[in-house]
TrEMBL record:
One Pfam family this sequence matches: Arginase
Keywords, sorted A to Z: Hydrolase, Metal-binding
GO biological processes: putrescine biosynthetic process from arginine, via agmatine
GO molecular function annotation: agmatinase activity; metal ion binding
Family of the protein in this entry: Belongs to the arginase family. Agmatinase subfamily.
Keyword Nuclease part of the UniProt annotation: no
Descriptive protein name: SPEB protein
Amino acid sequence: GGDHTITYPILQAVAARHGPVGLVHVDAHTDTGDTALGEKIYHGTPFRRCVEEGLLDCGRVVQIGLRGSSYDPDPYKYCRDQGFRVVPAEECWRKSLVPLMGEVRKQMGDKPVYISFDIDGLDPAYAPGTGTPEIAGLTPAQALEIIRGCKGLNIVGCDLVEVAPMYDVSGNTALLGANLLFEMLCVLPRVKT
């Protein structure tokens, strides 16, 4: 729950225990902005703050489902410059993400990994109840492939953020979010499914 700002203090605590962690980040947006309205901490900046504080093992960060409008002609440059693997939504259209997740598992290895899932990574046809919807996103089946594809990783934490009940008239976004969180619990180490 909450907006993506919550991931920043969580990763501070996780890194204090485990050192810099890998990150599987599903989102429509990179969340690596520097400021908004003069503020350095808001839902579009958590991963830049994490990079600055050395909380992430940048060679083990993958961002999946990125898309949408931007104020920058190359909105993924900062991420790539840090060593993140960037997987825009259009690279996911009309296909299974099982092969991608095989590559991600190799990239993550056996070191600690955190999963951060912004519900706006999914297309608003499936998850309209969010504050920053972007068209042409991932499907629920692809979301399951991503999460289930994390099974076997050394997952040390996870979150699902940006569900906004006031925009979720049907309740479908909350249902989808709850199911995705359940799936994340099922892929945690030592969980028998």
